[in-house]
Amino acid sequence: MPDPAETDVKSAGEAIAAALSATVTEISDAYGELTLTVATDRWVDIARYLREDPGQLYISFIDLCAVDYPVREKRFEVVLHLLSPKYNKRIRIKTAVDEDTPVPSLCEVFPAADWFEREAYDLLGVLFSNHPDLRRILTDYGFDGHPLRRDFPMTGYVEVRYDDEQKRVVYEPVRLNQEFRQFDFLSPWEGDSRYELPGDEKASGKAEAP
To answer: Which of 21, 63, 141, 149 could connect to 81 by a Cys-Cys bridge, CB 3.0–4.6 Å?
Structure first.
């Protein structure tokens, strides 16, 4: 027997999809909340409809973020969360874009989207068209790259320290004090070649066949 809650969520998604024509490409139920995957070029129209339609009234902006899937052709998913206080419902809207395609800014519909879009741009490099002030918000001026991308190195590209001689903070390329080692996993005792420890025969080829 189908769950009434799931049926209600699906029906709500189908009603929104019907009102928005071919804009909605996928409807799903995640933890009892409606999730819609939509066309990027209708991103603002969808947000405005959900905010202003008397049957929706998702007037409360909760969150906007992005997720990186490097193996996909459109590697970023931009995710919007809204709340309808009147109907006590939440909705999640998603759209997929690549590194070069901007997402229309939602600032004209939800002014609170301003800093959230700046954060997505700063940390993942997602572009937003018609944003009033699209610049970094968390990283420093001149920061290289976007630190929440999956292919961003864990060490980063530069390190920051205070220089006592110059009496200021300086930026320097990351230096690794220890070279990366290549382990062949033949022996846990590999070490100084002047000594032969138990287990070294595996690496030296002296091990006798059983």
So the answer is: 63
